[in-house]
Each structure stands twice: as structure tokens, then as C-alpha cells.
Amino acid sequence: MQTDSSFTFVLFGGTGDLSMRKILPALYEAHRAGGMLAESGRIVAVARHAEDRDGYLQWVNDHVKPYVSKNGLDEAAWASFLKRIDYVKLDLGKHEDFALLRDAVSDLPGIRVFYLATGPSLFVPICHALASVGLNENARIVLEKPLGYDLKSSNAINDAVGEIFAEEQIYRIDHYLGKEPVQNLLALRFGNALFEPLWRREWVESIQITIAEELGVEARGDFYDNTGALRDMVQNHLLQLLSIVAMEPPHSMDSDSVRDEKLRVLRALKPVDERDIGKVAVRGQYHAGGIRGTPVPAYATEPGVKKDSTTETFVALKVEIENWRWAGVPFFLRTGKRLADRVAEIVVNFRPVPHSALGSPALRPGANRLVIRLQPNETIRLYCLAKQPGEGMNLASVHLDLAFDQFFREGQMEAYQRLLLDVIHGRLALFVRRDEQEAAWRWVEPILNEWSGSNKPPKPYAAGTWGPAASSAMLAQHGTCWLEEEN
Ligand code: BG6
């Protein structure tokens, strides 16, 4: 890890939810670990609410410290972390405030990173204002998701930002790409010869990718109601996971080799014909229910959500990839809020043996399957059949387990920490390139259009279940079921 790259990290939205829960805790962790951040590196928070640096540090102590102390707080490291932080009170509407920002950073060393932890509607005005005071040179800009609302609005933002910053200066965050297990997926696929020959249509019957959450929309009802699960989770996190699962081996791990391969997958997604949307896409919305015995209210009664909202909180999709490796293999994707469990996992179902002399279990789909659990508890589990002890030849399902926390007891890094270090050190591989983002928007757009124009409400599901029955029915049509329905 480089330690000599000095930097000035300018955080727009310095008192926002993301800064509080993710960005500042991640910077603190990198600082606490020692050796990851250059000694001279500075953090300049930008916000409207705090009056001055003391006021901002007070806010950080009150609001960020609780998130940091979850992992055990090192008071000395916390105190020295605060010393890295400067503050500029800035009203985005006032040009003269950007001149103050320029003055505040002009003598600070190293590369400048501008992190826009703000709503996407502010991305373009902030970039213009930065350029107007010459702060776009020798700088990197980090854009949080969601970047736009659809292909058109995302293009408008990318065009405008692209006039001020070159593509190599733009870091579009998808925090799933920074997760250790997602990195491990690359290691599993491209560091081992074992799986590669099997990783194709001849041997794989279907693939499932699930990101399920127990949480609801929390305090983000207003944002979420205008967004929905397709934009919030599918267009970015799920399609990025899909592209990593399905991509060809890159010739190197440099940023463009990996992104080129992901792009090829996104471009090969079979376009969804609007007449088929009912067959390949399920949208749901949670009603009142209970999670682990605790009652939870219906989505439509959450603060900030319209009472007659038709926004989806659940999506299940059947996706196909039109290339030689994957033609005909269904990829089932799903995500939802207020589901029965918090879990993100990839399930690769291999084809059964073509003929079984050992009885029917060997002919069962999924007898051989690889389950890659991304969270919680990162594990890889390979299911096989084995002979049950005793008389006769009876087969039973057994599994080989690889639990990463038992192998690597320390060194796990939070997604945001990894990604922020990558920005500071100029590593682009884990950030979404514009063409990838466009391809993903282009693919989801027919579904977005159909759902927004439809007068049919989303299918209801009770909070604490696995989503609408139609999601299971879609898989049943392909002779399969979601992993948790197996037993
Ligand atoms: C974010 C979405 O991108 O990802 C949230 O906006 C979601 O709605 C979150 O809760 C899930 O991330 P994770 O890391 O908790 O799985």
C-alpha cells in the first residue's frame, strides 16, 4: 500500500447521512490502521450547517463517533484523526463561497479529491462551480449513486461532468465493488483453474443472485419512493455482480481490462421485450408484517412515502446473456427490502449427471452447486453427493465449506475504506466507467418504462417473507426454485 501519496480530500455533503455512516468512519479506519494514508493528507469537509471548524468537529464527535466506536474506538487515533479535518462553510448557490474553498485548499499538498456525497441534482452545479475557480485541474471527482434517474438524465449528468473532468478523473462509486467478497469472486474465478472449465452453459444450469435486506426504507422514504428497487439496487449493484460472475477472464487486472470485460457482459444482456416483461420481471411492495417477531408497518405508511405509492420494494428478474458462454442459461436476480433475512449470495447450479447408475438424487438439479455467500459471514460452499454410510448405495447431499474469517482472521476492509483508498491512490478498476453505466441503464429502461406507465400496482408481499409468490412461480417455470425454498 502506498503511503506517500499526499491528498486533499474535499467532502461535499459533509454533514449528510452518507458522510456520517460511511465516508468519515472509513477515513478514520484507514487513518487508525496506520500507513494507509499519507501523514500530510487532509480532509476538508464542506457543508452549510456548521458555523466553523469547531462546530463541525463537534458534529463529527456527536454523529460519526457512534458509527466508529462500533468496532472499538481508539481514542488516541480518533483525536489525531480529527486533527486532519478542516471545514469550509459553503452555500452551493454562492460563487464567492467556492473562492473561499479554493483559498482553503490552494496550499494543501497532493492530489485533490472532490467527493460529492450529495443528491445527483447537485453534481453538475458543483462541477461548474469548481471549474469556475480552477479547482478541476489535477483533481479527481467521486460521484455517488444514483447517477441520474434513467439513461437520459444519467447521460445529461455524464455529459456535463465530462466537459469539466476527463473520464480518468471520474470515479463513479458502486460500493458493492469494494466489498471484500466481491473481490474474492474475482480471485475464485481467475486465480483457480478448477472452476473455469465448468463456468459455462455446458455445465451450468442456472445462476441466482440475491441481495435481500431486512431493513426497510429507514429515514429515506422520500428518496426511495422516487427511486424504487430497480434503480436503487438492480441497475447498479445486481448488474455489476452479474457482470463479474459472467465476464470472460481479463488479460490483466488493470482498470480498463476488467471494465472492458464487464462491459461486454452488460452489452450482451438479452434486451427485454416489453411484451415479455410480465414473464421475466416481478415487482413487489411490502405490506405490514413481521421480521424476527417484530411487527413492521407497510411501505405505503412509511414517512415520506405516498399513501398510494406504486414504487417497487422488491424485484425479481430472469436475465439471459447472449454469448457463447452463457446462451440459454437463466440468471435469476432478486432484491428487496423487508425480506426474511439479510443475505447477499450467488448460487451456481450445475447440471446433474446425464445418466445415473446411482439413483435419482444424482439426477436432481442442484445436486452440485456452488453457493458464494457475500454477506453476512463470507463463505463458499460446494455441494456434492456422497454415499451414506452403511448398507446399500444411498446418496446424500454433503458440502465443503470455506469460511473466510477462519482463514484470514484479520485484515478485512470495509467497502468504503477500500474505495476511498483507491481514489486517493488513483486506482480506477473498482469504479464504474461511463459506458458500463450506460449499458446498464439501457438494459433496465424498458422495464422502468413499463412499470412507470402501468396502472397495475406492484404485487404485495408481507414484510418478513421472501417477496411475492410470483417470484417463486417464475423460477418454477424453469424447473428450479430459490435456494431457501429447497428444503
Ligand atoms: C445502497 C442502497 O446502495 O445499498 C440502499 O441505496 C441499500 O437502499 C444498500 O440498503 C445496501 O448495501 P449493503 O452494503 O448494506 O448491502
Automatic annotation (TrEMBL):
Q: In which pathway does it act?
A: Carbohydrate degradation; pentose phosphate pathway; D-ribulose 5-phosphate from D-glucose 6-phosphate (oxidative stage): step 1/3
Domain of life, source organism = Bacteria
Name the active site residues: 237
Please list the residue ranges annotated as the Glucose-6-phosphate dehydrogenase NAD-binding domain.
10-184
Q: Could you tell me the Gene Ontology terms of the biological process aspect for this record?
A: glucose metabolic process; pentose-phosphate shunt, oxidative branch
Question: Which residues does the record give as NADP(+) binding sites?
Answer: 48, 91-92, 145
Catalysis performed (reactions): D-glucose 6-phosphate + NADP(+) = 6-phospho-D-glucono-1,5-lactone + NADPH + H(+)
Is Endoplasmic reticulum included in the keywords of this UniProt record?
no
Which residues are substrate-binding? 175, 179, 213, 232, 337
Per the record, its GO cellular-component terms are: cytosol
What are the UniProt keywords, alphabetically?
A: Carbohydrate metabolism, Glucose metabolism, NADP, Oxidoreductase
Q: Where is the Glucose-6-phosphate dehydrogenase C-terminal domain?
A: 186-482
EC id:
1.1.1.49
| HAMAP family cross-referenced by the UniProt entry | G6PD
Q: Which family does it belong to?
A: Belongs to the glucose-6-phosphate dehydrogenase family.
Protein name (Swiss-Prot/TrEMBL):
Glucose-6-phosphate 1-dehydrogenase
What gene codes for this chain?
Answer: zwf_1
